[in-house]
């Protein structure tokens, strides 16, 4: 059989397969999102940038989508989950460190006096991070995070923390990837903390996670190389740091960004500044019943200036209560 | 026509196309590599980790391959190309900076006195980097690098610097990607300098380039966000820094690594330390006729301790003169 016949058959097969494709495309994407202007704004953007011949068409290599994590992909109340991990870790390690009972930063925490701990401010927080996030190899730390994820439970939902993720956003991650986007997490959270679990939960591989970083040291231990996590912060991927983190790790300006707080403000501005079609989205926590309602006055996930700019520039604002028919995967 | 018939036709078409695929696969890969143990070691490794059912099989998501740049993917003599860029830039900017003629670091350089400049050591080098790599936005810097690439010529080959790249390594990058590997550059060079041109030349997208980094600042200029490159180094991705850079940017241990100097030693050790099948390769510059011959005593691309360990642990060592039948794409 001559090669040309193979091509003829291929073209024929593809032509006949066409109706199947259309049927698949007609399945409603993003089922946990209610129909309305928000869902429509996402789908319309994706269709515009992926339709060849459209004025807004973007080549797949440039389809970079960035997502904040805390409060955008998973919940962040009553306290940032990584901070809870650190608190739990202090308690778990305390028996081996009797000296911590004399440490002004750690003592109130061990006594369950959260108000007293918080009075210690950033210094106390730094101390907690140093004793829980340093002094082990990167492989050991990954193991510690993995075990915590398997055992710790969120106080309100009584589920593992990595189950307290937003179902609509997981659908959105899949939808973006199905449309040729490369999805990145760009979070203030620690990059080593996130990479221990995000691939399984979000389908985002470690090399597409941008986050805050501590110092590290390369060492040969009995001839075997290890990376040791040291106390001391090297890079904070929050606020002004987010565009810098994006530039450093990704090196392209995203065309799609989703956040939920003022910590994401500069990331959204940076995304909006590029040429061509752009999508900027904010998750607004408006659902006190199914989750929490907070914005301008919250200590965690404060959303104030970014909300003003989003309204002014007509960025997409998700009203969680109204726009999401399902919040968590564990809901019936 | 019923859907089942579409499948029948598809299967039929694919079956008939099979011989074409086989013919393509039988084309010898890596044509610029001479047949011999080195080429064989690469192909045998790739076949082992990509054959399902093989004891050494590795899932595509874990197929991370890292490549040094200077001296591994492109040449690095008579002086690192990025340094030449900095020198050229000092000369280009000098007319606007009469004060540089009084600057002890820059004066010898402007007078063409390279020995005098080198006597200034790291301090003088830092000064050159500060005045050429800072004080502009990231977008402006990209433009400057792009223009230099289009105009500057390598002194020996009289070609643009990004043509003085190793044809066998470009074939290797393609071959690895064709086998499901994600290829990363992990270089001591500046990440912003490389990203300006590597995608076109190597097919490596910006988000897969790990390198040294300077400080940056996010700024709104008339409401438009920019990232400004500041003087001061933030991270040196060389020697001990390479495993740290890999951990930070990629977050997985590579299974395949190629370097050419002691600056790549720890990256090779780190790659070798992981479980399962591993490939560690060194380009040994042995070809004074077509390029340069240097190793243990060279100031640029010194290869000494890594060479000893490579011999001892039977890592793959490319003898450039013997193993490569073609060095540069511009050769006839």
Brief descriptors of the model:
Rossmann fold; 16% strand; 332 residues; alpha/beta; 14 helices; 7 strands
Would you summarize the structure shown here?
2 copies of one chain form a homodimer. Chain A has 332 residues and is an alpha/beta fold.
Would you give an account of this structure?
Chain A contains 14 helices and seven strands. The first copy, chain A, has two domains: 30-79 and 155-323, HAD superfamily/HAD-like (Rossmann fold), CATH 3.40.50.1000; 81-136, no CATH class. In chain A, helix 3 packs across helix 6 (121-133) and helix 11 crosses helix 12 (265-273). The model of chain A has no long low-confidence stretch (mean pLDDT 93). With 332 residues, the first copy, chain A, is α/β, with parallel strands linked by helices. A seven-stranded mixed β-sheet of chain A has the order 4-3-2-1-5-6-7, with helices on both faces. The first copy, chain A, is globular, with a radius of gyration of 23 Å.
């Amino acid at each position: 059989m001559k090669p040309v016949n193979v091509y003829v058959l291929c073209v024929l097969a593809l032509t006949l397969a066409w109706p199947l494709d259309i049927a698949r495309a007609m399945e409603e994407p993003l089922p946990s999102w209610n129909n309305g202007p928000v869902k429509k704004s996402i789908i319309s953007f994706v269709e515009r940038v992926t339709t060849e011949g459209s004025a807004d068409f973007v080549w797949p290599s440039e389809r970079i989508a960035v997502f904040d994590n805390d409060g955008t992909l998973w919940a962040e109340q009553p306290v940032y989950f990584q901070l809870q991990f650190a608190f739990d870790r202090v308690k778990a390690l305390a028996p081996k460190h009797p000296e911590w009972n004399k440490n002004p930063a750690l003592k109130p925490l061990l006594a369950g006096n959260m108000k007293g701990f918080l009075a210690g401010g950033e210094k106390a927080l730094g101390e907690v991070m140093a004793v829980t996030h340093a002094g082990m190899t990167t492989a050991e730390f990954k193991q510690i995070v993995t075990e915590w994820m398997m055992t710790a439970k969120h106080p309100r939902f009584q589920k593992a923390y990595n189950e307290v993720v937003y179902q609509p956003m997981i659908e959105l991650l899949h939808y973006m990837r199905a449309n040729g986007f490369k999805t990145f997490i760009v979070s203030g959270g620690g990059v080593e903390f996130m990479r221990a679990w995000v691939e399984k939960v979000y389908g985002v591989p470690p090399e597409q996670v941008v986050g805050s970083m501590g110092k590290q040291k390369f060492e040969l231990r009995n001839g075997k190389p290890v990376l040791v996590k040291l106390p001391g912060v090297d890079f904070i991927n929050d606020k002004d740091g987010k565009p810098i983190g994006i530039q450093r790790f990704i090196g392209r300006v995203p065309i799609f960004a989703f956040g939920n707080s003022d910590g994401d403000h500069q990331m959204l501005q940076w995304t909006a500044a590029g040429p061509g079609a752009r999508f900027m989205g904010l998750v607004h926590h408006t659902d006190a019943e199914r989750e929490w309602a907070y914005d301008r006055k919250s200590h965690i996930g404060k959303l104030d200036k970014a909300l003003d700019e989003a309204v002014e520039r007509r960025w997409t604002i998700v009203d969680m209560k109204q726009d999401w028919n399902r919040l968590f995967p564990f809901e019936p």
